[in-house]
Design a protein that fits this description.
Layout (H helix, E strand, L loop, with lengths): L4 H4 L11 E5 L2 E4 L7 H14 L3 E4 L5 E9 L3 E5 L2 E5 L14 H13 L9 E7 L5 E4 L11 E7 L2 E5 L9 E5 L4 E4 L8 E3 L14 E7 L3
Antiparallel strand pairs: 1-2, 2-12, 3-4, 4-7, 5-6, 7-14, 8-13, 9-12, 9-14, 10-11, 10-13
Bound molecules: succinic acid and fe (ii) ion.
Length: about 220
Protein backbone atom coordinates (compact mmCIF):
# COMPACT_ATOMS: atom_id res chain seq x y z
CA UNK A 1 0.00 0.00 0.00
CA UNK A 2 1.30 3.45 -0.87
CA UNK A 3 2.25 5.57 2.11
CA UNK A 4 -0.44 7.99 3.14
CA UNK A 5 0.08 11.60 4.14
CA UNK A 6 -0.33 10.50 7.73
CA UNK A 7 2.86 8.45 7.47
CA UNK A 8 4.82 11.63 7.00
CA UNK A 9 3.87 12.61 10.51
CA UNK A 10 4.44 9.24 12.13
CA UNK A 11 6.63 9.73 15.16
CA UNK A 12 8.48 6.43 15.12
CA UNK A 13 11.51 8.35 13.82
CA UNK A 14 11.82 11.29 16.21
CA UNK A 15 13.37 14.44 14.79
CA UNK A 16 17.07 14.73 15.53
CA UNK A 17 17.38 17.32 18.31
CA UNK A 18 20.75 18.98 18.89
CA UNK A 19 22.16 18.00 22.26
CA UNK A 20 21.57 20.48 25.08
CA UNK A 21 23.85 20.04 28.10
CA UNK A 22 22.70 21.74 31.27
CA UNK A 23 25.55 23.40 33.22
CA UNK A 24 23.40 25.48 35.58
CA UNK A 25 19.80 26.12 36.47
CA UNK A 26 19.53 28.60 33.58
CA UNK A 27 22.74 27.75 31.72
CA UNK A 28 23.14 25.42 28.75
CA UNK A 29 25.61 24.29 26.13
CA UNK A 30 23.86 23.85 22.78
CA UNK A 31 26.11 21.38 20.99
CA UNK A 32 26.80 22.23 17.34
CA UNK A 33 24.02 24.80 17.36
CA UNK A 34 25.95 27.32 15.20
CA UNK A 35 26.95 24.83 12.49
CA UNK A 36 23.94 25.39 10.19
CA UNK A 37 24.65 29.16 10.27
CA UNK A 38 28.35 28.92 9.37
CA UNK A 39 28.04 29.38 5.65
CA UNK A 40 26.54 32.82 6.21
CA UNK A 41 28.32 33.57 9.47
CA UNK A 42 31.92 33.38 8.22
CA UNK A 43 31.56 35.83 5.29
CA UNK A 44 29.69 38.21 7.61
CA UNK A 45 32.55 37.94 10.11
CA UNK A 46 35.04 38.83 7.34
CA UNK A 47 33.04 41.98 6.65
CA UNK A 48 33.06 43.03 10.30
CA UNK A 49 36.79 42.41 10.63
CA UNK A 50 37.59 44.38 7.49
CA UNK A 51 36.06 47.45 9.18
CA UNK A 52 37.20 46.69 12.74
CA UNK A 53 40.29 44.45 12.71
CA UNK A 54 41.34 42.39 15.73
CA UNK A 55 43.56 44.27 18.13
CA UNK A 56 45.17 43.57 21.48
CA UNK A 57 43.69 45.57 24.37
CA UNK A 58 45.11 46.51 27.76
CA UNK A 59 43.35 45.97 31.10
CA UNK A 60 42.96 48.81 33.61
CA UNK A 61 45.80 47.13 35.52
CA UNK A 62 48.09 47.50 32.49
CA UNK A 63 48.13 43.86 31.32
CA UNK A 64 47.80 43.11 27.62
CA UNK A 65 44.98 40.62 27.08
CA UNK A 66 46.13 37.49 25.27
CA UNK A 67 42.92 37.29 23.23
CA UNK A 68 42.64 39.86 20.44
CA UNK A 69 39.30 41.70 20.28
CA UNK A 70 36.86 43.30 17.90
CA UNK A 71 33.16 44.13 18.16
CA UNK A 72 30.04 44.80 16.20
CA UNK A 73 26.63 46.14 17.09
CA UNK A 74 25.63 49.43 18.67
CA UNK A 75 27.95 48.96 21.62
CA UNK A 76 31.48 47.52 21.59
CA UNK A 77 33.17 46.33 24.75
CA UNK A 78 36.57 47.90 25.24
CA UNK A 79 39.24 48.09 27.87
CA UNK A 80 42.19 50.40 28.41
CA UNK A 81 44.03 52.00 31.32
CA UNK A 82 40.86 53.94 32.15
CA UNK A 83 38.68 50.87 32.70
CA UNK A 84 36.26 48.43 31.12
CA UNK A 85 33.30 49.92 29.28
CA UNK A 86 31.05 49.88 26.23
CA UNK A 87 31.64 52.49 23.54
CA UNK A 88 29.66 53.45 20.45
CA UNK A 89 32.83 54.04 18.45
CA UNK A 90 35.84 51.87 17.79
CA UNK A 91 38.62 53.67 19.67
CA UNK A 92 41.09 52.60 16.97
CA UNK A 93 39.24 54.21 14.03
CA UNK A 94 36.95 56.68 15.79
CA UNK A 95 34.11 55.26 13.67
CA UNK A 96 30.97 53.54 14.97
CA UNK A 97 31.46 49.80 15.47
CA UNK A 98 30.27 47.85 12.39
CA UNK A 99 26.58 46.96 12.37
CA UNK A 100 25.71 43.56 13.75
CA UNK A 101 25.12 41.35 10.69
CA UNK A 102 21.58 39.99 10.49
CA UNK A 103 22.85 36.39 10.59
CA UNK A 104 24.67 37.11 13.90
CA UNK A 105 21.45 38.43 15.41
CA UNK A 106 19.39 35.50 14.12
CA UNK A 107 21.81 32.95 15.54
CA UNK A 108 22.02 34.70 18.93
CA UNK A 109 18.24 34.96 19.24
CA UNK A 110 17.65 31.36 18.17
CA UNK A 111 20.20 30.09 20.70
CA UNK A 112 18.73 32.22 23.49
CA UNK A 113 15.24 30.93 22.67
CA UNK A 114 16.51 27.34 22.78
CA UNK A 115 17.83 28.01 26.30
CA UNK A 116 14.59 29.55 27.55
CA UNK A 117 15.27 33.25 26.93
CA UNK A 118 12.69 34.20 24.36
CA UNK A 119 13.07 37.96 24.17
CA UNK A 120 16.82 38.42 23.74
CA UNK A 121 17.79 41.58 21.86
CA UNK A 122 21.58 41.85 21.87
CA UNK A 123 23.04 45.27 21.09
CA UNK A 124 26.64 44.13 21.33
CA UNK A 125 28.77 41.31 19.95
CA UNK A 126 32.31 41.04 21.26
CA UNK A 127 34.56 38.96 19.01
CA UNK A 128 37.52 37.30 20.70
CA UNK A 129 40.36 35.67 18.80
CA UNK A 130 42.54 33.16 20.63
CA UNK A 131 45.73 31.77 19.14
CA UNK A 132 47.24 28.72 20.87
CA UNK A 133 48.36 29.75 24.36
CA UNK A 134 45.81 32.59 24.64
CA UNK A 135 43.32 32.41 27.52
CA UNK A 136 40.63 34.34 29.35
CA UNK A 137 40.99 34.62 33.12
CA UNK A 138 37.96 34.01 35.35
CA UNK A 139 35.67 37.05 35.34
CA UNK A 140 32.03 38.06 35.57
CA UNK A 141 30.27 39.92 32.75
CA UNK A 142 29.02 42.92 34.65
CA UNK A 143 29.63 46.02 32.57
CA UNK A 144 26.07 45.86 31.24
CA UNK A 145 23.40 48.27 32.48
CA UNK A 146 21.06 45.42 33.43
CA UNK A 147 21.59 41.72 34.03
CA UNK A 148 18.10 40.78 32.84
CA UNK A 149 19.35 39.56 29.45
CA UNK A 150 21.37 36.38 29.05
CA UNK A 151 24.85 35.96 27.57
CA UNK A 152 25.11 33.99 24.33
CA UNK A 153 28.61 32.75 23.54
CA UNK A 154 29.48 31.04 20.23
CA UNK A 155 32.65 28.97 19.79
CA UNK A 156 34.34 28.52 16.41
CA UNK A 157 37.62 26.90 15.38
CA UNK A 158 40.02 25.24 17.80
CA UNK A 159 38.55 23.54 20.89
CA UNK A 160 38.60 25.24 24.28
CA UNK A 161 38.19 24.24 27.89
CA UNK A 162 35.57 26.66 29.23
CA UNK A 163 35.48 27.25 32.97
CA UNK A 164 32.02 27.84 34.40
CA UNK A 165 32.29 28.82 38.04
CA UNK A 166 30.20 30.17 40.85
CA UNK A 167 29.50 33.62 42.19
CA UNK A 168 32.89 34.07 43.83
CA UNK A 169 36.18 33.88 42.00
CA UNK A 170 37.40 31.20 44.39
CA UNK A 171 34.37 28.91 43.85
CA UNK A 172 35.11 25.64 42.11
CA UNK A 173 34.58 25.78 38.33
CA UNK A 174 33.09 23.16 36.06
CA UNK A 175 35.32 22.33 33.11
CA UNK A 176 33.24 22.38 29.95
CA UNK A 177 34.93 21.32 26.69
CA UNK A 178 33.72 23.50 23.81
CA UNK A 179 34.00 22.55 20.16
CA UNK A 180 33.51 24.35 16.85
CA UNK A 181 29.83 25.32 16.59
CA UNK A 182 28.94 24.95 20.27
CA UNK A 183 26.93 27.77 21.86
CA UNK A 184 26.81 28.48 25.60
CA UNK A 185 23.87 30.45 26.98
CA UNK A 186 23.65 31.60 30.58
CA UNK A 187 21.24 34.00 32.21
CA UNK A 188 18.68 34.46 34.96
CA UNK A 189 20.00 33.08 38.23
CA UNK A 190 23.27 32.09 36.49
CA UNK A 191 23.85 35.45 34.79
CA UNK A 192 26.69 36.57 37.07
CA UNK A 193 28.65 33.36 37.24
CA UNK A 194 32.41 33.60 36.91
CA UNK A 195 33.71 32.09 33.69
CA UNK A 196 36.91 31.88 31.68
CA UNK A 197 38.89 29.89 29.14
CA UNK A 198 42.03 27.80 29.77
CA UNK A 199 44.98 28.38 27.41
CA UNK A 200 44.08 27.13 23.93
CA UNK A 201 46.09 24.08 22.91
CA UNK A 202 48.20 23.94 19.76
CA UNK A 203 46.28 22.74 16.77
CA UNK A 204 44.83 23.53 13.40
CA UNK A 205 41.14 23.62 12.68
CA UNK A 206 40.14 22.50 9.19
CA UNK A 207 38.06 25.64 8.51
CA UNK A 208 39.51 28.31 10.79
CA UNK A 209 43.16 27.30 11.03
CA UNK A 210 45.29 27.92 14.12
CA UNK A 211 42.79 29.95 16.11
CA UNK A 212 39.62 29.92 18.13
CA UNK A 213 37.04 32.65 17.58
CA UNK A 214 34.35 33.40 20.12
CA UNK A 215 31.33 35.67 19.74
CA UNK A 216 29.82 36.98 22.95
CA UNK A 217 26.37 38.51 22.48
CA UNK A 218 25.06 40.78 25.20
CA UNK A 219 22.52 43.47 25.86
CA UNK A 220 24.76 46.27 27.05
CA UNK A 221 22.33 49.17 27.33
C1 LIG B 1 34.35 35.86 27.39
O1 LIG B 1 33.91 35.52 28.47
O2 LIG B 1 34.45 37.06 27.06
C2 LIG B 1 34.82 34.85 26.37
C3 LIG B 1 34.44 33.45 26.64
C4 LIG B 1 34.93 32.52 25.57
O3 LIG B 1 35.85 32.86 24.82
O4 LIG B 1 34.40 31.40 25.47
FE1 LIG C 1 32.83 36.90 29.75
Amino acid sequence: MAPTTLDLFADDEPQQQPRRDRIGEQAFVLRGFALPWLEQLLPALEGVLAAAPFRQMVTPGGLTMSAALSSCGTWGWTTDRNGYRYTRNDPQTGLPWPDMPEVFLQLAQAAAREAGFAAFVPDSCLINRYVPGAKMSLHQDKDEKSYAAPIVSVSLGLPAMFLFGGFHRSDKSQRVPLLHGDVVVWGGVDRLRYHGVLPIKDGRHSQLGEQRINFTFRTAN
